[in-house]
Write a structure and sequence with these properties.
mainly alpha; about 90 residues
Amino acid sequence: MRLSAIRQHGFGHLGVKVNKQIIYTMSAFEQNPIKGVLRKGVPNMIRRTRESFFVIAIPALLAYMAYDWGVTAQAKLDRKDPKMYENDV
């Protein structure tokens, strides 16, 4: 069932009129997209990296150590035992 065909309105037009609503906007041509990147953005990125270093680094290090242990243990288990093949010709 298409409600827009019944009500003769498009999507988003509910027929309710809002009074005394003021919207302030700035043109996209008046905004500077790279304003303050070097002066504020880079120091902020460094500060946030320093603050969250141990939160990320410690679990990452533990995960890498567990992965490395698993790879070496699997390599040891995959090796053939030479004693099983001593009597082969």
